[in-house]
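From the methods appendix. Each design record in this collection lists the tokenized structure first, followed by the designed amino acid sequence. Records were kept in a plain field format so they could be parsed without special tools. The example shown here is representative of the layout used throughout.

RECORD:
FOLD TOKENS (404 positions):
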């Protein structure tokens, strides 16, 4: 299932701390190749090598292919490759140290972005060239907050509010929990029927973990070590009624579908896309808990140091094109990162017909109201995530994780 690519591993994030301690790489850039001002247009059409470590091509490959078709004088050809996020920083650093950078553009989530920033791997396109990526001035407010996480290195290309949501089958759960206390009571009365996957390897599991401090009113939702007393106490109590934690989100979806779980942690994308694909019954429903805040997510485009200024010129044109309303509408996809567009004013009616059909049938009208009515919060930074994952593994559920 394409949606699985969004999951982040504890190894990916733990690597950040190791990489950060190693210092910035020596790139030995050839004179004139990647330094100096970026021209408005490359001297001749370039080939771009794009690496995706976030599953972002599911949303953006159509945008990129359209640009190449319409602007063959700027980009003559694109090659695509994919890799796990944990491999990104090491791969780029090795190429830079060898003075042979052959990855021109990376599509990444927060984890890969942070790993590269810690290592000094990314070219700062901002703020110097921000006016050449016009769509950035049109970001949705929460997408703008996600852009601020990128500093000067990355450009936000897609965004979604994420979760945490609870997903269930109404026939099994006719009166779903409305509060955190309700969820705990349900879990106690229905042992083994409330499920979320190990947070370090699950988007919904991670979002549930980061969302609880807001729901429970903890003193500092951004400090999992010193500010989550209520959250850790809650998770430890809930753990008494959990039989096991799947190692990934897909297993929670299968458990919901086959009846071995009644309530699972979810997000907008994990709610819609598996029902489009038939993994989860169409009639599955979603709910939130009192005190709910959205914990947001985004994908970014970053350029490794060592990429020629000609290629940077082409990339700036490409990113500007991707952040137009017509192209952003393609990010609706089939609910994979719902809604998906990072800029204001992009309606589903502008999306390709197959996206409109999928979301018309499997989307939820209540999402518009939930998005309008509830605050949005940026996720924890990488260092804090590592600390949260480690504490969860040690003190909550690590001994109950079931491998696929």
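DESIGN:
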């Amino acid at each position: 299932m394409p949606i699985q690519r969004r999951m982040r591993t504890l190894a990916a994030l733990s690597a950040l701390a190791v990489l950060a301690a190693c210092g910035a790489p020596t790139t030995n850039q050839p004179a004139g190749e990647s330094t100096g001002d970026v021209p408005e247009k490359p001297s001749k059409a370039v080939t771009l090598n794009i690496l995706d470590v976030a599953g972002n091509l599911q949303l953006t490959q159509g945008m990129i292919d359209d640009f190449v078709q319409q602007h063959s004088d700027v980009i003559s050809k694109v090659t695509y490759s994919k890799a796990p996020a944990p491999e990104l920083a090491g791969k780029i650093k090795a190429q830079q140290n060898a003075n042979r950078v052959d990855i021109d553009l990376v599509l990444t989530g927060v984890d890969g972005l942070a790993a590269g920033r810690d290592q000094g791997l990314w070219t700062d396109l901002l703020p110097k060239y921000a006016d050449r990526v016009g769509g950035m001035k049109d970001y949705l407010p929460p997408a703008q907050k996600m852009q601020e996480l990128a500093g000067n290195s990355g450009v936000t290309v897609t965004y979604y509010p994420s979760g945490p949501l609870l997903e269930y089958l109404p026939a099994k759960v006719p009166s779903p929990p409305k509060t955190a206390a309700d969820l705990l009571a349900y879990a106690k009365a229905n042992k083994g029927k409330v499920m979320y996957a190990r947070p370090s390897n699950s988007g919904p599991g991670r979002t549930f973990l980061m969302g609880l401090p807001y729901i429970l009113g903890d003193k500092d939702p951004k400090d999992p070590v010193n500010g989550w007393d209520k959250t850790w106490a809650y998770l430890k109590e809930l753990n008494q009624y959990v039989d096991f934690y799947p190692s990934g989100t897909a297993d929670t979806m299968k458990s919901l579908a086959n009846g071995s779980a009644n309530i699972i942690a979810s997000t907008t994308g994990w709610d819609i896309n598996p029902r489009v694909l038939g993994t989860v019954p169409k009639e599955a429903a979603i709910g939130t808990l009192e005190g709910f805040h959205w914990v947001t997510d985004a994908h970014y485009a970053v350029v490794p140091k060592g990429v020629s200024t000609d290629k940077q010129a082409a990339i700036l044109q490409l990113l500007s094109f991707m952040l137009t309303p017509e192209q952003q509408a393609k990010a609706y996809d089939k609910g994979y990162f719902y809604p998906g567009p990072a800029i204001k004013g992009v309606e589903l009616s502008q999306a390709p017909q197959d996206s409109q059909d999928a979301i018309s049938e499997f989307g939820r009208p209540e999402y518009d109201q939930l998005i309008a009515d509830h605050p949005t919060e940026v996720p924890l930074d990488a260092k804090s995530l590592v600390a949260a994952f480690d504490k969860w593994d040690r003190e909550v559920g690590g001994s109950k994780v079931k491998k696929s």
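APPENDIX NOTE: Residues 1-32 have pLDDT under 50 and may be disordered.
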